[in-house]
Amino acid sequence: MAYMHVSKDIYEILSSCAEQEAMAWLLDRIAKIEDSRTTRDLFMGYSLLASKFSADQSMESNPKVSDAITLFSAHKASLLEVSRIYLLVKVLEIDFGHFSPQVNRIIEVADTAELETFLKYLVLLPDAQRFKNTAVEALRTNIATIFDAITLNNLYPAKYFNDQQWNQMYLKAAFMERDLSLIQAVDERANKDLSRIISDYAHERWAASRNIDPMFWRPVTKFIDDVLLLDMERLLSSDNEIENRAGGLCCFYSQDDRALKLLNQYPKLEKQIASKEITWNTLKK
Fold first, then answer.
1. Can you say whether the dihedral through the CA atoms of 114, 51, 56, 62 is positive or negative?
2. Which of 98, 110, 163, 251 could form a disulfide with 259 if both were Cys (CB 3.0 to 4.6 A apart)?
3. CA distance 85 to 164
């Protein structure tokens, strides 16, 4: 996904929902920041957004389709959140080299709500990979809203995390019992190391008689080996129908002859997957 013309799209979204007076104030403030180029004016403008744009009013539905609108809709963004991202995007578009240290400083002193906003929409910022340290640091938090902001409904990890960072995020999301179906690009970022970790983690959970979210298995699909084949046998023979489905989906899309032969033993399930009656999106429905 390429985020082109982001500030233009965000402006259209914001101006269609916010009061004209607030928009006029914002444009005037951005002009002053561009003219003065001072940290004081940027910090002051960012701080005053909360007095101009509502944190309780969500962005209204917009008939225009754009990457920014899709992302804001997925998170039910408030006008305050959209205005904060618009201001940061605009100053970075004006002069990234000059304003990026100031934006980093804003994030360093951000409260939880501000940091949550920054992480959710980080992928919209120009040269977004330059802020990866903040995104990776968010993986270490035990604050669920901060962890969710970078992990769920967010393409930033898929675009910029390396395999180690991605695997850490995926495993911690499972450990924190987050909704794994909301993690983006799971199939694209699946890797052999993660498959091994998933199997090891599952064996530990099974040994402790603890449940595992069946969605957890999705990344192993292309990496079925002797150990994972036994895991698939266990899933398919489970008394839990959703585990049966997860095992069936892994086998069906594995392109592994042994896994496909195993699934042949469950013709009804195989037929439901082949007809797309059962998919990862309908796994628990």
1. negative
2. 251
3. 28
| Measured distance CA(135)–CA(138) in Å, rounded | 5
Q: Which pLDDT tens digit goes with each residue over 136-155?
A: 999 999 899 999 999 999 99
CA distance 80 to 53: 5
Nearest to 232 by CA among 265, 189, 186: 265
pTM above 0.70, yes or no: yes
Cβ atoms within 10 Å, residue 193: 12
Residue with token string 């004209």: 20
- CA dist 192 and 220 (Å) reads 8
Q: What are the tokens at 121?
A: 């929409």
Alpha carbon dihedral 23, 106, 82, 1, in 10-degree steps, equals 130
Tokens linked to 157: 């990890």
Which distant-in-sequence residues (6+ apart) come within 8 Å of 45 by Cβ?
29, 30, 32, 33, 87
Where the chain has pLDDT below 70, the residues are: 1-5, 60-65
CA 122 to CA 237: how far, in whole Å? Answer: 43
Q: Which tokens go with 156?
A: 């930033």
Amino acid symbol at 93: E
Q: Distance between CA 37 and CA 130 in Å, rounded? A: 20
How confident is the model over 201-239, as pLDDT tens digits?
Answer: 999 999 999 999 999 999 999 999 999 999 999 999 999
